[in-house]
Design goal:
Elements lengths: L2 H17 L5 H9 L5 E6 L3 H21 L6 H23 L3 E6 L3 E6 L6 E5 L3 E10 L1 H4 L3 E5 L3 E5 L3 E8 L4 E5 L3 H11 L11
Helix pairs in contact: 3-4
């Protein structure tokens, strides 16, 4: 006889997610309870490795010219060729390898973005300077004028390593910061759960 009340009490829980009865309560208690202490996310663009290979080829060509070429025909043109190949190769290598991968970390105090496998460039944004976070379903290099660390006066700053979902932060100074990262919806929920009421905001607003 004791099994019947137990089964009856469990039944509403089993149907709660489907009938919507518990829907309003989940964002209040459930979402905050599920927030991790530290959230980690990342995004990768393997196509960038092709561009990195081109940069490595330019660098190798510059070294080859410097080592094996004859210097009797004139040094100035050869030096310019060597310097040009080496400089182009280094620029392409850094510009691609730095943005093959991006890692995002959110804790109770800040959001940190590390680019590339060595973590450079890097940006740390204290959450007390963030006023909002939004999910962007489709961020593309075309929106920002290319890959990498981008800035546009009408849009703000962005780290774009691939097409796809991302997070848009609204900062207290009126600027925005966009990051392409996997599981961006989860990241937005975590960030919003970390934001504190700003000074001048009425209690309960």
């Amino acid at each position: 006889m004791r099994d019947h009340p137990h089964e009856g009490a469990a039944a509403p829980d089993s149907h709660g997610p489907t009938d919507g009865a518990d829907g309003p309560a989940r964002p209040v208690g459930g979402s905050h309870a599920e927030l991790p202490e530290v959230w980690h996310g990342s995004a990768t663009n393997r196509i960038q490795w092709l561009l990195a290979a081109i940069g490595a080829a330019c660098l190798a060509l510059g070294i080859e010219l410097a080592v094996d070429s004859s210097w009797t025909s004139g040094r100035a043109p050869l030096v310019m060729s060597v310097v040009g190949c080496v400089a182009a190769g280094l620029l392409v290598l850094f510009g691609t390898l730095a943005f093959v991968h991006v890692a995002v970390r959110v804790d109770k105090e800040c959001l940190e973005v590390r680019c590339g496998h060595i973590g450079v460039p890097r940006r740390r944004i204290p959450l007390d300077t963030v006023v909002g976070a939004d999910f962007a379903p489709q961020v593309t290099p075309r929106h920002w004028g290319g890959w990498g660390y981008r800035w546009r006066p009408e849009q703000g700053t962005a780290v774009v390593v691939r097409r796809g979902e991302g997070v848009i932060l609204q900062l207290g100074d009126g600027r925005t910061f966009t990051i392409t990262v996997d599981d961006a919806e989860v990241a937005v929920r975590v960030i919003r759960g970390r934001l504190r009421p700003r000074k001048g905001t009425p209690a309960g607003a």
